[in-house]
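Please check this.
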Amino acid sequence: MRLLYRLLSLACLFLATACANHGGSHGGGSASSGGASYKVGQPYEVSGNWYYPHEDFSYDETGIASWYGADFHGGATANGEVFNKNELTAAHKTLPLPTLARVTNLDNGRSIVVRINDRGPFSGARLIDVSERAAQLLGFEAQGTAKVRVQVLADESKAIADAMRHYGSSTPTQVASAAPMPEQETVSSGGTSSIVAVEQKTLEPVQTTPAVHQQLLETKPVQEVVQVPVTGGNQLYVQAGAFTVLENATKLQQKLSSLGHTIMVKAIVNGRQFYRVRVGPVPDVAHADELLERVKGAGIANPRTVVE
């Protein structure tokens, strides 16, 4: 009962009922049309890079956000919803669709909730691609990019996933036959990523009622900005990898030293010591994109840009 009350309270705080524009075609429609689905998805390849969608309700990462708008307005998103540039939605490479997440602009402290319902972005070192309206509220529409923190709203996202599975459509996760299976996966914690073996877990469904399921199924974020404190700093680095063995981290640090200032950052994740290897800092997004390509050119498969 406490969890149900919390879900309803959070839904009232963060969400409003969506009455339209959640269909699965370019012509629009409604959530009840059956076009939208809950989708984790298969591993996929873009420009030689493989991405592995998975459920991660503890996701908490920093990076660079961009935005998209009129060119995609009215088109279908990756899970069959209709993209509306005036709603608070976003694209992400690996999170389930849909997922609710809080996006915070680390430079001005403006923070909003978005509904992730699309795949991307695949340009440069971008972490997330938000709608035009989301970029306006976050204060970076004119700038084009921003340093952000992305935090999945766990209870709400789990409840929506369960609602879609039981009362909406669900797209099963399959492994693409052409996809190389990674020896390691990315597990998020504390705003950055650590490379560790993924432990497969069965998620417990959120116990609610059919009425609450339907309400969650048809929700979208309220267009409301929360102002949070700005801590300053926010320097950009390219993280090349993270290791539990110091020797491995040291070897990578030495290998990348020719690319620029390379540091090792210690972090405790789930009680384990990790050594994160980063190159930087760099002054802006353009330099981060350039450095990311140089790190890839050094043979690093999955580097990413982080904000520290």
Notes: Residues 1-34, 172-177, 181-202 have pLDDT under 50 and may be disordered. DSSP finds six helices and 19 strands in the chain. The first strand starts at residue 15 and ends at 17.
